[in-house]
Amino acid sequence: MVGRDKSAQHKRIAVAVALMAGLLLGVTGCASSKKPLTTGSIPKLSKPVDSMTEPELARAAEAIGQSYERNPMDRNIGLSYANVLMMSGRNAQALAVMQQVAIAHPSDRETLAALGKAQAAAGQLEKALGTIGRAQTPDRPDWRLYSAEGAVLDQLGRSSEARSRYRMALQMQPNDPSVLSNLGMSYVLSGDLKSAETQLRQASQQPGADSRVRQNLALVIGLQGRFQEAEQIASQELNPQQAAANLQYLRGMLSQQNSWKQLAKEDKAKKAS
């Protein structure tokens, strides 16, 4: 019983990581009805933040950090800086940045959404839920905020409520891969791996599905013991560097429940028989 409880705990940790990836996607780029609140200049980056290596993220954080230091109340610079910090795993610092930006722009919708994202990344889930709720407006709801709210609710163990938010998001943005991915990982938390795989396969087939969606699909297939298939999906990326990163992610997630070698052994035995 102890071993089973520990395995379930490790699975929840793995899914929480995947849901946080979905949350980072979900509230990035939330539309604001207001005009830009800044005249500051953000350093031009060579590629999207979510495809950067660790050294590239470190250089981006340094460059944007210098702009932030010159003008810490600038909304756009603060949003960009906090996003790079979170992608680098510097969650406490990202939250501190967003708290400063929110002081200067307390009613700006995009700022509130980013603050909620930073709170969730720092583990302040109840606060994040309240902040994301304040960013949402009933007359003009944002599907990204529904999805982000669902990701936080799932981490709080409120999966039924979370799925209702994902469905609300999908009504507004049908077949969005980030929402479908979060819905799939929500099913993993309740142990329904078949439903999870269905949602994640649908997500991976959508235009705009990125590496993190395929990583989640590979993880769910791996959790079902189909090791070779999981590895093939994790390797299907645009270049060898991305493929290697995906395999590292998959092995890291499955090793949290000490199952990578066992899955490989079982998969080999099935093929031999």
UniProtKB/TrEMBL annotation:
Superkingdom of the organism of origin: Bacteria
Pfam family for this entry, one: TPR_4
Start and stop residues of the TPR repeats: 143-176
GO molecular function: identical protein binding
PROSITE patterns assigned to the protein according to its UniProt record, in alphabetical order: PROKAR_LIPOPROTEIN (PS51257), TPR (PS50005)
Domain Ancillary SecYEG translocon subunit/Cell division coordinator CpoB TPR as annotated: residue spans: 44-175
Keywords per UniProt: TPR repeat
Protein name, entry field: Tetratricopeptide repeat protein
Protein's organism: Peteryoungia ipomoeae
